Amino acid sequence: MSKSIRGDVKLVEPKSPNLMTERDVDKPPVLEATNLGIDFGGLTAVDDFNLALGRTEISGLIGPNGAGKTTVFNLLTNVYQPTRGSILLDGTATAGKSVTEVNHMGIARTFQNIRLFSQMTVEENVLVGYGNSMKTRLIEDVLRLPSHWKQEAEFHDKALELLDIFDMRKFANAQAGNLPYGAQRRLEILRALATQPKVLLLDEPAAGMNPAETEELMENIQRIRDEFGIAILLIEHDMSLVMGVCEVVAVLDYGRIIAKGSPEDIQNNPKVIEAYLGKQGVN
Fold first, then answer.
1. Are 201 and 61 in contact (CB under 8 A)?
2. What is the pTM of this model?
3. Backbone angles phi, psi at 264, to 5 degrees
């Protein structure tokens, strides 16, 4: 198992029934979900989901396959509209917003299955993420006015600086679809960061990575939080990553949170052990 890089983090209970790091407790949550739930026909996929994510918190959402983790991400990004409950991003309700509008508000995500523009270069994929920030008008771009070239140069430099986070500047002109699997994973994270989010949702970011790559990813997740000052919520099956970098861990089972606490608390929680191993496994 990878060594923890979290350091000593004290968890406290704010007014809402959610744990939060002491570092963030005096500031309002950047993301807050209250009594969130969704039904598909007669099936309840997520029920009574509550989350208060501190502004610079790294949290993990874990659980057995089919527990509803990706459904939660789809709710938080408005891919799905909740059947009940509410979501506040920096104090503003996301209800009725489109996926694009929620992204503009400040939530970015990656996916279990990589979704890059495989025929475009690595740099072009990052520039797609910066699209929200580009200020020139269409006519300026069509006529290639000086303002167009100035902005193009500015965002070229920004894209290369972002690629430096994962030491990927050397791949800037490579076709994204030709990158090794782990590098494609990293590129998807960088493209999400280019949207300048307040909250970054990572859906199994270590999938397909070897132990060395996972160790590097753990360090980079913490670096991203520190340099960008954002909150990170990740879904992950690699427990070495979750326990090594997450400050708060919530466990989902059959669409409900059954435990929440520090990584150490979660590792020793009987409900969590039973959810993963079954009742026989805890006897």
1. no
2. 0.84
3. -65, -40
